[in-house]
TrEMBL record:
One Pfam family of this chain: EF-hand_6
Superkingdom per UniProt: Eukaryota
Lineage per the UniProt record: Eukaryota, Haptista, Haptophyta, Prymnesiophyceae, Prymnesiales
SMART domains in the record: EFh (SM00054)
Signal peptide: none
Ranges where the EF-hand domain occurs: 18-53
Keywords linked to the UniProt accession: Calcium
Gene3D superfamilies in the record: EF-hand
Comp. bias (Basic residues): 1-12
Region (Disordered): 1-21
The protein's name in its UniProt record: EF-hand domain-containing protein
Amino acid sequence: MAAARAKKKRERAAREHQLDQETDRLFEKYDTSKSGLIEKEELRAMLMAIEQEKGQLTLVSEAGLEKLLDRMLKNYGEEGPEGLGVSRENALTAMKRYRAWLKHEEMIERLFRQADANDSRTLERGGEIKVFLTLVVNEFPELRGITVEDSDVDFILERCDGFKDGVKNEVIDMEEAGPAVATWIQVVRAKVRPPRRLKPRHRGTSSH
């Protein structure tokens, strides 16, 4: 069992290393301004290259791509000599996070509207975020019955990066929630995945 886990760990590390190398290669290719950041149009070309070469992203429409670019730049962008762009260090993290969001985008937006009782286009820590996360887990048969805790709400708020006047927001909007909730779904799934049962070891019988 330990050997199998070690093998999986090595395989995962190898995949991560391959993705890092691929990101480095694409960064070098598409940072045409040589600013050290991938600006919006460079990022667009880079994402389309990944789609075509590796199928790592599923961009169902031009509108979906535009939304993805805007979110990546909003949450991972920084000002550079050529304008707002994403650094090499943030590029891979951003792509992984938003890839997960794209898979659940329609569901997340539908359930967000359902949980937004006063139609404020935001969800509050006081209860609406918990309602929203409970609706999310009920969408997945393997997650039904899970109780959403305050720590789950904290997880979402910490990853939404919402600040106003230097103070962390206690509410989230749909743009903030999407990628954070997609990540949360993956974390919860990993926690509830049942451990593999060890097969009993059959001992040979000896005759006397």
